[in-house]
Amino acid sequence: MKKTVLLLSLIIMSLGAKAQYDQAIGLRFGLPSGVTYKKFVSSQNAIEGILHLGNGIGLTGLYQIHNQAFGVSNLNWYYGFGGHFHISNSRFGRYGNGWRAGGSNAYVEGALDIGINGVLGLEYTLPSFPLVFALDVSPVIGLSTKDYTYFGTTSSLAIRFYF
Predict the structure, then answer these.
(1) Contact at 8 Å (CB) between 58 and 86?
(2) What is the pTM of this model?
(3) Ordered domains of the chain (ranges, CATH)
(4) Left (φ > 0), alpha (ψ -120 to 50) or beta: where does 96 sit?
(5) 3-class secondary structure for 106-131?
(6) What is the pLDDT of residues 80-107, one digit of tens each?
(7) Helix or strand holding residue 68 (H, E)
(8) pLDDT tens across 3-44, in order?
């Protein structure tokens, strides 16, 4: 009897694997690169945290709204906003493809950057394996303790395992 209940539970859980997952963890490549964790707080709304370790250490938090894209199951587009902070340990650094005003572009070691982020992207969830691929673009505006401001766009690819 216990084996039957366990088998039935596994079948029901596998039927539940779908594009809308509850939470996922993985890697993000691009700017910022690092470890990404995403959690849905409702059927369409998610929060994402990114721990980035390039040129120092930082954290980005994003609130995202998801909708089905192009009528394709398992494909969603999303948009949202959030913020970031980053402590730099590199002599040379740049946040995306943008510009900096004031100060020097060449020396940013020890800088504390804070700013706001937007996000627009596509996300595909594999239907038969717990893997999610996301591609996005983010406008970024920030301030630094090293006497400069910056504005730019970044892009990234994230690969996450969902559970």
Answers:
(1) yes
(2) 0.78
(3) 2-162 (2.40.160.20)
(4) left
(5) CCCCCCEEEEEEEEEEEEEECCCCCE
(6) 999 999 887 765 444 444 444 444 444 4
(7) strand 56-68
(8) 544 443 433 343 333 447 999 999 999 877 899 999 999 999
